[in-house]
Amino acid sequence: MPKSAISQAWVWVVLGAMTNAAMVALAGRLWGGRVAPLTWMTYAAAGGALLWTLGGLLCGSRGANIRANPEEMGPGRRECLLSVCDVSALTAGIVASLVVSLHLLSYGIRAAQEVMAGGLERLSAETVLRVDGLLVIALLIAACLLALWSRGDRRLVAALFALFLLASAWFGLSLPFFRKLDDATWQRTGASLTLLVGLSVVLCAFVGLRSALARAARWRAVREHPDGLLESFAEWPAFRKTAGAVGLLLILLISYELASWPMSGSLSGRARCAIITVCAVCSGTAMFRLFGERWSANFADAAMGLLTLGVGAWSLLFLPTEPEAASERFPLVFNSLLIAFAVMTWLWVWLGRIWLQQLDHGKAWTAGGRLSAYSPGFGFFVACVALVNGSVMAFWPRFRSVGVFDDSVGRVAAGMAGYLLLLLVLLWSRRASGRASFGVLALLAVFSLLAFVAVRAKPLSLRDHRAEVTGCRWVGRLEGMMA
Length: 483
Hints:
By secondary structure, this protein is mostly helical. The chain has helices spanning 3-31, 37-59, 77-117, 125-128, 133-151, 155-172, 191-224, 239-260, 267-293, 297-315, 326-354, 367-395, 409-433, 436-482; strands at residues 178-180, 186-188, 359-360, 363-364. Helix 10 (297-315) crosses helix 12 (367-395).
């Protein structure tokens, strides 16, 4: 490259650096006396990203930035200015998004520390999240939309997706997960549920938009260029990996909801359970949509896991309203999940047999054909989770912190019914799939059933004995009164 071109490039770099420094100085002049330096620098970075994007939009498209004299070497001034705008906007956007992410991380660490110290009621979004994150993220989203509209660069879609996820996380974590009412009472807030809903909505919206654009591209190819139907839809770089990470995070959030909250029979508890069900099913469907485009074992795990958890959350809608105490409701939750996961084990093994029809001489050429060998293994994993639920339910009265017997006739009958259903599903799966692991799991289920009966047999027999003694006393009193 000639020295003149190198000198010109340095001039443009210095121009961009000086412009960024001027924006930071202006932000310090406006907000420097009221907020921390890092805060107004974040505002300046977000605003700078939007302004540089507008500057690049005014410069025009790259196709028009050609010198009048084609023999002259090096880019033109407009091309250089456009490159400076792109680099400056990208740098400012990365700085602003990193600051917001670090604020969220610090908030999570502080929240964990306050939970351990028992003082989470003093922690709020205003004390830790000192940056107005939604304003910063809104500026970055506007910059991404303008850049995507003017450049058409599909790499910006993943950045836009990440920004919407960051906004959902900021909005969901604006409340603490727990609030302390008194010295011994803690109350959960809607932070985790809000975070779950926000991430699910963003994921489903982007996957739905992707599917709609792909369908429109196919119809356009049918009308204008039929040979284009053989071509695949243009990929959004890094979108699939980000969506897979979000699916894993949703599985963790739904598992947290099911494991730490005994869905009460009140209207609010049923509504919470219904929301979890809808989020799990919709997110699982979105994962299946991405999995159907291109095979990925990770997407298959995420999709089947979300649908399984959705069915488990749906089964909790049918629990009775009584009892209300958490220690007494958890056995009902375990029993319901045991039945739901047993049904899902049968479903995945059965679908594995059905999908064998899509094999071409033993070779898979469709997503369903690939799942034919993969689905029974996931069914075994679901069966293991069901057995864990049953084992916890069996030994629940033995935990020192519980203090309940869970030995009523109805509860014992319901628990045994769940175990018998799981045992039948495991035996059928052993025969249908030919896997000996299902037989071993069936043997473990028998031992767990015996433990369930043994733990509840003694309190139940004592209760019957007390009832017989009380009945004899009443009979004796009546006979004395009649004599």
